Predict the structure.
Amino acid sequence: MNNGVHGLSITDYLLMLPMLELAIFALGILLIDLMIPRRWKWLNAAGALAGTLFAAACVWRIQSALPPRGLLGFYNSLLVDRFAIYFWYLFLAGTAISILISAVYLHVEDEHRGEYYAAMLLSVVGMMCMAAGIDVVLMFVGLQLMVVSLYVLVGFLRRERRSKSAFKYMLHGALSSGIFVYGLSLFYGFSGGTNLATIARWSSGLNAQNPVAGMNPHNPVVMIALFATMTGLLFEIGAAPFHRRIAGAYEHAPTSAAAFLSVVAMLAAWALLLRVLLYGLWSLRLVYIPVLIFVAIASLTVGNIAALFQTNTKRLLACSSIAHVGYMLLGLVAVGTSQIGSAGFVEGFKGVLIYLIAYTLMNLGAFAVITSLRQGDVIGDQVDGLAGLYRRAPLEAVLMLLFLLSLAGIPPTAGFLGKYYVFQSLFEGKHYALAAVGLVYSLFGLYFYLKIAYGMFKRVPKDTVRLRVDTALRCAIGVTALATLVIGIYPTPVVNAVNWTLAIQQSRHASAVPK
Amino acid sequence: MLPIATFHYLAVAAALFVLGVVGVLTRRSVLVSLLSIELILNAANLNLLAFSHMWGNLYGQVFAIFVTVIAAAQVIVGLGIAIAFLRSPNTSLRTSIGTSPDQT
């Protein structure tokens, strides 16, 4: 491992191989797109898919050579540990499914351009930096690479209303990242370094009531720094007081971009949030846990109540994703209020990670079904468009029912498993009131998900023509549905994977910080 | 004469930050919003440079360079999207973005 005095070694480059490879694929797609004729444009999607598969192979290679505590690289700014590997796999899986959805959607919209896939792959490079960054500079650059690419994806269909909504999305995103970097600059001022390890060492000194520094966690400037940083993080995961941009962006973005944005980008934001709050600022948890409780309850309330009144399916999924963020934050509260390595800590962390897998699968599946309704000149993003789906496409309707049940958290689906672990961690930590709030809001969720399901099976469709579903979309729906069901029935492999991930997380918290 | 210490830089940066946030939240014109975003990022930059001087290390300056580059990238994409909806004849760079019927 290099200590910053010598130059970079080959290990550093091997650690960033998946990102390097994805960036090369993104640039290659941009070039190849110029050379191929119109009817061969699907090659862009195939190239992007091949890129994610190659990257997954690189990640697998790194994983098989990884020491249990992970590897530091690039002058201690990149930490590839099990946590990072776990998220890298999730990003790549989510991206592969999003590419399948995009290929079909862009074909229908007749906007099949290579830039779309290039922006997608570049944003995955940014996400990987966020998940593996241990230096706030790398994390911030990764975050910006991700969000700037997302602005391009959201505004990809250049029509006036859509562009206006994309501009607002961009403006809110830029505001949040500005506030985030202001918070980070203050943390640099307190600790004298940009590495999370340095910041963690500084913040653990605060709790010891260090009289020389004359600062404690409740110092107003520390609070400003903490809240500014948290604003940026909570904005990116789309939690409640900062949710306003989401619904409009989902509605006006291409459906395939909305799927990517709501799932893969949120995964990356969660990776960043967990790393910053549970590692860098762990010692300040007494200050931020009340904020997290407030945000979790606000997200559950706003998401579930607003979802009752939506007539647009994409907006409905936006509201449901706000609610899901609320459940995951409840898991995070359980993590933050228990001792490292105790049952509440492990169960809560496990709950968040499993919930993220379940959310990825079921949300991508639901978006894939909505994309299949976009045919010719039918927009198909109204809830009424799903009415009578069973008569038009029986298989898709049954699979959509599976996704809806999973979103509502009914066994035997992946969504149930995620909620199960989150609630169990709340019971372990004796947060009975929070668990009760979560359960009550689950009932709200059940109502509006089952209302859609009722419409799909019982109502008569306006348009009785059988739905033609493209093969790529069938693959996407099939894979996500199968995984949702299998994880619900036989969760052992996923639980094992999460246990494997957490082995390092616990030991890293328990032991001294690296560097 | 009062020497200029780190605190003074931080005060200016805090003022710039507040101006920027207020600007984005209250002003609805495309151009002013983008300028306000720049104010926020430059407030962070000023902080970073002041702290870098205070600590005597270069981490802050390196971070500031990255923030500058990111600000440029953000504005380029932002203006690109803005131009996409400003193409229609009755709009200009001072057009409000907040009066459309889809207020979310």
Q: What stands out?
A: The CA atoms of residues 18 and 66 of chain B lie 22 Å apart. The interface with chain A takes residues 10, 17, 20-21, 24-25, 30, 33-34, 37, 40-41, 43-45, 47-48, 50-51, 54-55, 57, 59-60, 62-63, 66-67, 70, 73-74, 77-78, 80-82, 84-85, 88, 97, 100, 102, 104 of chain B (CB under 8 Å). Chain B is about 70% helix and 0% strand.
